[in-house]
Amino acid sequence: MTTTGRFFCADAARTRGDSIVGTAPHGSAWVLIEYRGGWPVNGFDGLDLEAGTRALVFAAARAARARVLLMRRHGRRSPEGPPCWAVLRYGRTGAHRQHWGTWGRDEDLAQIAQALGTPGEQALGTPGEPGGRPVVLVCAHGLHDACCAVRGRPVARALSERRPDLVWECTHVGGDRFAANVVVVPDGVYYGNLDAGSAVTVVEEHLAGRIHAEHLRGYTDLFPPQQAAVAAVLDRFGPAGRHDYAVARTFRDGDGWQIRVTGPPPGPAAVDVEVRARRTPQRQLTCRGPATSSAVVYDAVSVRPG
């Protein structure tokens, strides 16, 4: 996908063969706010909301280390009823929790702070309902980065046709050059370099409990070297469920890491992965940012059954 005379970061990244492994931002909680109007370049922070409510939600999200994303159905179709919001929390054993509500006035969004645990109060131990269906987010924030719209919207269309109740377009999730980006929450799994066809396959496999290494950016409960280790195990031994593999230990070893990943049969009970980090040359990494910068790449240099 190219357009003559204009720089597109995702085109450039694919031409270079940029690695997507280990690029999922760390986090285990998400705030989703359905917003059917135009999205500001900086998402929630740029909304013209009642100042006190916006500050309350922002402070609660920051205290809970939650990412705040705006979302809408593909095509900006307007479902019946008021827009919704959600607080989604990842559970390490798969015991995710979800808290959903609706809003009509700006002040209604104060419920989000209550669901997160209001700043200054002890965070709620087990907020929201357990379980629930996953939410599939497709970054289509074109005002933030052109590639998110050019590549994201066809993916959102294809997934919405297949899973209309699960799929939402959302604001910036990070990694513009890996568009189209899809995030499954509260599983906390990032996928990148998708198109309409591969996105349908990846999401259907994910929902069936089979996560593949191809297109996997990482798991958000893990740090980048650990994400790279799990991806290497999936690449070597085949797809697995979200919680089939666990990082049992991580040791820093000079400029790299020794990481043990444990899993169920029929694969090995433990796999030792050596991960090394390297920096890329200075490059333009986003459509909107003409300045060049370097990225860190995490390479699994050895994968050995323990």
CATH superfamily: Glutaredoxin
Q: How many β-strands, per DSSP? A: 16
Strand content: 25-35%
Strand arrangement within the widest β-sheet reads: 5-4-3-1-2-7-6-8-9-10
C-alpha end-to-end distance? 43 Å
Number of domains: 1
Look at the helices and sheets and give the structural class: alpha+beta
What is the helix content? Answer: 10-25%
Mean pLDDT across the residues is 91
Overall CATH class: Alpha Beta
Cα gyration radius (Å): 19 Å
Number of helices: 6
Low-confidence runs: 119-126
Silhouette: globular
Please give the CATH architecture: 3-Layer(aba) Sandwich
Largest sheet: 10 strands, mixed
Q: If you had to describe this structure to a student in words, what would you say it looks like?
A:
This protein is α+β, with helices and mostly antiparallel strands and 306 residues long. The protein has a single domain (1-223), classed as Glutaredoxin (3-Layer(aba) Sandwich), CATH 3.40.30. The protein is 24% helix and 28% strand. The chain is built from six helices and 16 strands. The strands form three sheets. It has a ten-stranded mixed beta sheet. Strands 11-12-13-16 form a four-stranded antiparallel beta sheet, covered by helices on one side. It has a two-stranded antiparallel ribbon with strand order 14-15. A hairpin with a 3-residue loop joins strand 8 (182-185) and strand 9 (189-191). Helix 2 (51-64) packs parallel to helix 3 (110-116) and helix 4 (146-162) crosses helix 5 (196-207). It is globular, with a radius of gyration of 19 Å.
